[in-house]
# Entry
Amino acid sequence: MNRSTKASASGREALARAENSRGLVLVHGGAGTNAFELQEAAVAGTRRAAALGLARLVELGDSEDACVEAVIAAVRSLEDDPAFNAGRGACMTALGEFEVDAGIMRSRDRQTGAVASVRELANACELARAVMERSDHALLVGDGAQRFGEACGVGRFGRELLWTDKAQQRFEQARSGQTPIDNRADTVGAIAMDRRGHLCALGSTGGVLFKLPGRVGDTPLIGAGFYADATLGAALGTGVGEAIMGRVGCYELLRRAASGVGVQAAAEQLCQEIHRDTGAAVGFIAVGRDGTVGMAHCSAHMSWALAREGHEITGALTVDP
Ligand code: ASP
# Structure
């Protein structure tokens, strides 16, 4: 990790420097502990994803679905990047299998779509989007979600599409008790706001290492792991899902922000409270309805990047403040 990247440890300052102009993509690469050898890749991957998301947003201009397309472009790139715990690079369950979760919400009509505990699915973000746009439901799980994906022709399935040496090694270490099963970082998510102020939030994860088969965290749970609303703004949670779920984290953050404190202070408060009460590593990113951005975490690390129209991309791996 080069020093200049780490020197921007206070993501808050970098975020505060950006103007509150609309047309933005804010990305995270997970709150937790980033393995040293993956830290450079986490910074590069989140910056690349934010740039891809913004490029898509600009390309689509005033199209109704510009912010949906933008978050899909950003998260697809993170899911395809083995440095992250989503898609290729996802962590394994206690049985050495892959079960992934994802959730998406757009503000213009509060439509949501999510999938949970889907085996061997490489691009969970696409299937969550299909649930939102092509089903009458908000959340599909397990085999049913897989059947829906196959029927729609959405999603690529196969162990070889997700498997990485990194995931295998971590699984072996966890199984042999060589390392504590702490919360690794690397879950991913993106929030986009278009020029008209429409918002979309999307998160995707392999969950937590060595989880029980069938375990579902906050990522695909509306209000807990993701939320987007025209009056409140948009937020994404990351870290130990069990700690975020009890607070309905994203909704709670946005409710507090809207009551006057703003997204940055609300994110900081909530992270600190959850961490104080549970000891869990947690983090949030958020965009207020006025285009202000917030990012906070109580964890060893969190990677993030912000691409805003007319500005340089900012991004870093921040360390526990
Ligand atoms: N929140 C995710 C979960 O609990 C994991 C993470 O963000 O690292 O499944």
